Each structure stands twice: as structure tokens, then as C-alpha cells.
Amino acid sequence: MPDLKFRARFPLLTLIVERLLLSLMLLLAVSVLIFGGVEALPGDFASTYLGQSATPQAIANISAELGLDKPVVSRYFSWLGGALQGDFGTSWASRNSVSEQVGRRLGNSLFLAGFAAVIAVPLAIGLGMLSVHFRNRMPDKIINVISLAAISLPEFFIGYLLILYFAVNFGIATFPATVYESMGLLERLKAIALPTATLVLVVLAHMMRMTRAAILSVMSSAYMETAELKGLSAGRAIIKHAAPNALAPIINVVALNLAYLVVGVVVVEVVFVYPGMGQYMVDAVTVRDMPVVQACGLIFAAVYILLNMLADILAIVANPRLRHPR
Amino acid sequence: MPELLSIRNLKIEATSYPPGEPPKRITIVDDVSLDLQKGKVLGLIGESGAGKSTIGLSALAYGRGGADITGGQVLLTGTDILTLGKGGIRKLRGARVCYVAQSAAAAFNPAHRLGDQVIEASVKHGLMSKEEARKRALYLFGVLGLPSPETFGDRFPHQVSGGQLQRAMTAMALCPNPELIVFDEPTTALDVTTQIDVLAAIKHAIEETHTAALYITHDLAVVAQISDDIMVLRHGKMVEYGSVQQIIEAPREDYTRALVNVRQAMRQEAPDQSQALLKIDNVSAQYSNGFKVLHDVSLHLCKGQTLAIVGESGSGKSTLARVITGLLPPSQGQITFEGKPLTSALKNRSRDELRRIQLIYQMADTAMNPRQTVRDIIGRPLTFYDGLRGATKTARVKELLEQIEMSNGFIDRYPAELSGGQKQRVAIARALAARPELILCDEPTSALDPLVAEGILKLLMKLQAEQQLSYVFITHDIAIVRAIADCVAVMHRGRLVRFGPKSQALSPPFDDYTDLLLKSVPEMQLGWLERVLTTRRMASAGN
Q1: What is the Cα–Cα distance from B232 to B247, expressed in whole angstroms?
Q2: What's A241's DSSP letter?
Q3: Which of A87, A191, B108, B268 is the most exposed place for a label (fewest CB within 10 A)?
Q4: Beta strands B68-76; B5-16: pairing state
Q5: Above 70 in pLDDT, residue B110?
């Protein structure tokens, strides 16, 4: 079989292509779920929009105007077709193009998540290494307890705690975290200080603990003893022998947490009234503005799947057994 | 001129953390002294826990897993290396003293090419340039008989076999031209037919490079082939220290004598009876992915006898046991038990069929629930098969403990509180509890020290005589086969290459594979390795 031969000759490529195809299929399945889920939501846009003046005739008119009288399947495919070309339709509430709105808001969300990642990833890896260095001693224990506490608190709670202390009691941070286009970078960073801190606290603990575990398992392996018995310096042993093996699990957990960051941003944006995708989506849900909800849902799912796929692929590439088959 | 290595009154301690008790200091090595001259090989031999690896690592001023060298001196050409600072010790390791670990598969870094790892120490210590080191590695790969030495170094550890890795590790140790190499059980994890090649390669390389070596092993027959002197250790203390000839031919201590005489014949071969208890006819088996692991195997076992199945890892001997138990139903052929066809799949077997065939595993550790006491472990089959409960069950458990020569005091112990040999005994009692007719023993002694293993084998033989038990005994150890078997089946790559009564199966004329297998088993004689290698060379020259 030619397929088997290809698989045997290029196991790495095969695995990566498999992951890509799998991700695409997953995204398609998710698009069905999102569309179906939104369809199944109780309540409808027309009655919410019309409020007191909702007569059966007015509702029917609006439904016809929005094309809701067509069958679900054909609406799904025309929606999917549009989405594939980057056109998510028109918002029912504001009559603006969804894509345009989403574009601006996605930028804001990625800015927030990205800034949180820039702080969280090095901090987590640094703290992980620190706690390995002080393994089972006081600094390790303190880091562990604090990170466990941070993991256990939901992000909205951390958010309100931060607001209470830093914005209300001490008044050193701004709230709400509103940003607008004419804002300078510094001003912008100052505005998002609290939401960033919340996100960092939420993802930090997980990454740090996984980093610690990965390094510890590598450090206790037989080849690290070999390195020591070869008389190599501690620095060389760590950089040359430990790092390449510890990197794969660390990259994996970092990518997974980045995915969580982008999606977890929803709750945090609402808490801090930050004009990102999450806020946009929640607002759209309250008025049953379906095209916006669907677009946001699909984009979140795509980002999540993409980052997970990246994590998988990086882990595959980092494995010498797959890179250099027998 | 001082000795190359001279260890004086070495004392090594460690802190142990027994569960539920305060930590305590234990002595691993107590007052051991030894001398090693340039170019000589000293064998350190003993059971696990004898402190032999710990002594070996002290020559690199290294304590594994929190072991502290608390007394004595380790003199390398007259300098006590224990008094050197961190930097001094670092300069010594990988340059003047090198280490070869038991599991080269774990000791090589999976992320780097073998060649880079082999020359790393020599280059980093500034002993030679990268070019010179590469040349030397190439030379050593050749000396150690590795295939295509020019490209061998480009491979990653997972791309070569276990025996090749062990030789690559030896090349890594030899590369910087060290004065001393510590070999820590370098052939223990290998199959016998591979072991003999690695052993020959190591011996050749030591002679070629005039390096001295500490050779650590639990196998006296192996160390006798390679050493000049031997030190026998037990519980961290020296038992006997002398030349190889004296230790093998005229041991002074009882313990050494026991090691030398381990596994003499225990059982007279019983005659082949016409009525077979277990009959396997033309059985083939394959994994669910279509990979065929057994090809057309036919053999039988008579009641009250022992059938030994020998072969290397991957020969299909454990798979055959899985087929008999029904874990892997055969794709072809039939198994007959007491004249009746045996239901092929485990899930379709009746409780009585299940009861009659029991299993003992290699790792008693993982085969028992660590959260259950001995009472529960042995009691479970009593309840399951015979419905025993309460006082009758306890009485039967005590009876079984007596049969496996353990006192009633063990009844409420957990597996973690038992030694390796005791755990295996409890596993035997659990099998006996079902009143089986056939017990499948899957390498039950290979994880045990020789003398403990001997105790287990004697127990199995005693139980067989008392209860007319039949055993299918899977092993890679020919010495065990010689000691206990009635019938022998030799397996190779999923095929049965030889089957018959022991006296016939283990005597000439041999097929090629059985010949190779039998000749590869180290014998407790001086010069055995040379003789085997000479005959091999003559045979290959004759071809």
C-alpha cells in the first residue's frame, strides 16, 4: 500500500498532516454545534428587540426580513459559506457588518491576552525553575501554596478582589479598563493593568507547576547522572542535556494555557468592561443578536483549536524518535 | 609507585525514610578496603543491597540518591579524591575515571546523537580536539565490534539495539583514555546471546587500551571471565577477597561457596507419559494489528511435570503463556487440557477452567495490590473459587502460609513490608489457593538475587512433589532449565525450534539456535569466554 509506505517513510509529516486534518474536521463539527446551539437558545431576537410593541405581525415581518423563515440547513450553509470568506453577515441589532466589528474587538482581546502571556510565560517558567532549585524547601513551598490558591479562585473573583484593593482602596489602578483607538500605548497598558494581572494569576499557577514537574522528571533521569559523571559543568548539563528534553512538555503546557487565555478573556473582559470580543459576545447574547454570537463562538473555537494543534505539533516535532525514525 | 586505586576503610551512609516512621540513618557500605593496579580488573560481586554499585561510584566521588561517604579514603594514584573540591572532582570524572551504567538505554540522552555524546567528555575536558575525539570514537566503535563504525555515531539512541547501546556506552567511557572505568552491571539487562558479544567486546577493549576496571555484577560466572581479582560483598561488608582462581576453585567462606554452587540439579527428569495434561496443537497467534507473534507451535506437558520454555526477549515465550491463559486467543490451532478442548478466550471460560490454571509473574511487586494485606491477597481466590469466609478462610490462609514456609506473623502485612523473595512466595500462595493443576510461571525468579531465587525454585519443586502440580516455567536462564525441567521447549522469533525431554533437548546434535543459546550461557569456569570465542572463530574460519 502506498499510504503505508508514506507513513513509514515520513512518520513526522504524516502525524502533522493528520493533526491538521483532524483540526479542520473538529472546527467543522464545532461550527455545527455553535449554529445548532444558538438556534436552540430560548427566546428570539424579534421579541426582545420589539419589547412592548411585539405584535405577531411585527415579529413575522422582522423574521422574514432577517431571512429566518428559510430552513435551518440552508441558513447554516449560507452562514458557513460566508464565514469561510470572512463574512459573518450583518448584526441584527446595529445593522453593521459583524466582520468589521469583530476585527477591531479581536485586536483588543488579542492585545490583552498577548500582554498577559508576555508576562505570564517567562514568570511561570522562571518561578518553576526557582522552585526546582529550592525543591522541598521554604521558597518552593510558598510558591506552591500561592499558586494553588490562585488556581482555586475563579477569575471573576480574583478580578473583583483586584478592583477592590487596587482601584477602590488604594486607587492606584484605573477602572473600568476602557480603551479607545486614539489611546497611546502607555495609556493603554495602564488601562489594562488589572485585567492583565487577573489573567496572569489564573494561568500562572498551572504553567509553573507543569514546568516544575517537567524539569524535576528530567533532572532525575539517568542521562542527567551520566552528564554529571562525565564531569560536565552544571550549566552545560542543564542547557545541553536537560533543556532539550524538558522543553517539549513545557511548550505543550504553555500553548494550552495560551488557548485558555484567549478564551478565558471573556469573563475578565466583562468584569473590567474591556471592549474586546468577550464583552461583544456577552452583549450580543443578551439581545439575541445571533450573527454576532455565532461569529464570536466560531472565532474563539478556531483560536482554541489552533493553539491546541500547535501544542500537539510542537510536541511531535520535539520528539527525536519521530524526527529520526529507525 | 602507589596503586592506581586504593580504597581504605570506606564507610557510606544514607538516610532512609520508612513509611510511617521517623527517618533513620543506615549504613550501606561498612569498612571496605581494596586495591587495584594499573591495567587490572577487579570484580565486585554481591546481591542487590550489597553496596557494590555504591562502592563503584565512590571511585568517582559520587553518592547516588543521597548516599554520603562518611568515612575512609578513596586514593587515586595516591591522592584522596574525597578531599578534592567540586572543581577537582569534576576534572576527574569523565577524564580519569569513567562510568558505564547498567541501562545504557536510559543513560544516553534521547535528544542527541550517539557520536556527540561519546566524545563530549573528552572534548569538554580539553583532552583532545573534536577531530581527534571523533577519530578515537571511530576506532573504539571498531574495537567494540559495532556495525558500520563510520556512521554509527550519527544515530540516535533509539535507533540502535540494546546490545549496541551498551557497547556505545563502553566506547563513551573509553574515549578520554581514562585510567579507570567503573562497569556497573553492563550486561545484566541483555539477552544471553547478546551478553556474550558485549562481554567479549568489553574484555577486548580493556586489553587493547590497558585501562583498569571495577566490574560490578551479581553473576559470578560473568565476572570470572573478565576479572583478575574478585571481592564478594554482602550487606555492605566484605565477605571474601581474592584472585579469580581462588574464589571460583577454592572459596573459603560459606556464602561464596553458596554463590559458586548455585543452581545445581534439583530434580530428576520424569519419563514422558502418554497422557498429557496440557496439549498445544499447531497454535498460531497474532496481535489485533495483524502482527503474527506465534507460528504453528505444538507441545505438551504431562501431569506433575515441569515444562520449561526458554528463549530471548521477543521470542514469543510470554505470548505462549498469554495464549494458554486465554488473554490472547489463538488465531489457529487448539489447546487441550485434561483431554478436553480449552475454551480459547478468557471471558468465555467457566470458573472451574479459570481455577485450574493459575499464574505467577516476574514482578510480584506489580502483581499485588499494595493496599491489600497478605490475608486479603491470598484470601481472595479462596472466596472467589471456593466461597470460603471468616474463620475457615483464615485457617486456610494460615495453612497456605505454612506451605510457602512463611510464619503466621505475615498475615496482616502489606506487600511493601515484604522482601522480594517473600513477595514472590505470597504470589505462589495466591496461585495455590485456587487448588490449580497447572501453574504458569513467567520468569518468577529473574528479578531476584541468585540465592533468593534458589529458595523460590526449591519451594516450587517441593510443592510439585507434594501436590502433583504441573508447571509451565518461562525463563531465559538455561541454568534454571537444567535444574528443574522435565521437558524443554526452545523458542526463537515466535517459532518452536526444539521440544522434547530435557535429556534429549539439551544434548547434541543441536540446531543452530539452540547451539548458540547454550554456548552463550556463562559457565563458572576460568577461561570459558576465550574457549567459546576461539571455537566461534574457528567455526567462522571453516565456513
Answers
A1: 9
A2: I
A3: B268
A4: antiparallel
A5: yes
Which residues contact residue B259 at a Cβ distance below 8 angstroms, ignoring those fewer than 6 apart? B45, B220, B232, B251, B450, B451
Q: Is residue A88 part of a domain?
A: no
In CATH terms, the superfamily for domain B5-260 is P-loop containing nucleotide triphosphate hydrolases (3.40.50.300)
| A222 in contact with chain B, both atoms CB, cutoff 8 A | yes
Q: How many CB pairs under 8 A join A and B?
A: 72
Q: How far apart are CA A234 and CA A21, in angstroms?
A: 43
A303's grid cell: 483560536
Burial class of residue B506, CB neighbours in 10 A (0-12, 13-18, 19+): buried
What ipTM does the predicted assembly reach? 0.78
What is the residue-wise DSSP string for B385-427?
Answer: HH---HHHHHHHHHHHHHHTT--GGGTT--GGGS-HHHHHHHH
The shortest CB-CB distance from A223 to any of B62, B107, B124 is to B107
Are B101 and A225 inside 8 Å of each other by CB? yes
Q: How confident is the model at residue A1 (pLDDT cuts 50, 70, 90)?
A: very low
Check B121 against A230: CB less than 8 A apart. Answer: yes
pLDDT at residue B265 in the model:
57
**Selected residue of A135, A219, A223, A228 to mutate for chain B interface (largest B Cβ count, 10 A):** A223
Residue type, B123: V
Kindly list the residues from chain A whose CB atom is less than 8 angstroms away from the CB atom of residue B291: none
Interchain contact, B103 vs A222, CB within 8 Å: yes
| A200 within a domain of the structure (yes/no) | yes
Q: Is A320 on the interface with B (CB under 8 A)?
A: yes
Q: What is the CA radius of gyration of chain B?
A: 25
The minimum CA-CA distance between A255 and chain B, rounded to whole Å, is 22
CB B61, CB B87: distance < 8 Å: no
DSSP assignment letter at A97: B
**pLDDT single digits (tens) B89-107:** 999 999 999 999 988 889 9
Provide the residue range defining the domain that includes A310: 98-323
Query: Is domain B276-507 given the CATH code 3.40.50.300 in the classification?
Result: yes
| CB pair distance less than 8 Å for A226 and B90 | no
Q: Which of A221, A229, A244 sits opposite B62 (nearest CB)?
A: A229
Half-sphere exposure of B517 (CA within 13 A, CB side): 28
Between A277-286 and A98-133, two packed helices, what is the crossing angle to 10 degrees? 130
pLDDT averaged over every residue in chain B: 89
What grid cell was written down for B301? 506437558
Q: Which residue has the cell 500537539?
A: A312
Question: In the 3-class helix/strand/coil scheme, how is B301-362 assigned residue by residue?
Answer: EECCCEEEEECCCCCCHHHHHHHHHCCCCCCEEEEEECCEECCCCHHHCCHHHHHHEEEECC
Mutate which: B109, B151, B169, B289, vs A, most A CBs within 10 A = B109
Q: Which of B92, B107, B159 sits opposite A231 (nearest CB)?
A: B92
The separation between CA A152 and the C-alpha centre of its own chain, rounded to angstroms, equals: 19
Question: Does some domain include residue A55?
Answer: no
The predicted model gives B454-464 an average pLDDT of: 92
The answer to whether A250 and A209 are in contact (CB under 8 A) is: no
CATH number of the domain where residue A176 is located? 1.10.3720.10
3-state helix, strand, coil in chain A (%, to 5): 80, 0, 20
Look at residue A154 and give its three-state secondary structure.
coil
E strand or H helix that includes residue A157 = helix A155-162
Q: Is the pTM of this model over 0.80?
A: no
Interface of B with A (CB under 8 A): 60, 62, 64, 89-95, 98-99, 101, 103, 106-112, 120-121, 124-125, 156, 158-159
Q: Quick check: B159 and A326 CB within 8 A?
A: yes
User: Counting Cβ atoms within 10 Å, is residue A4 exposed (0-12), middle (13-18) or buried (19+)?
Assistant: exposed
CA distance B232 to chain A (A): 25
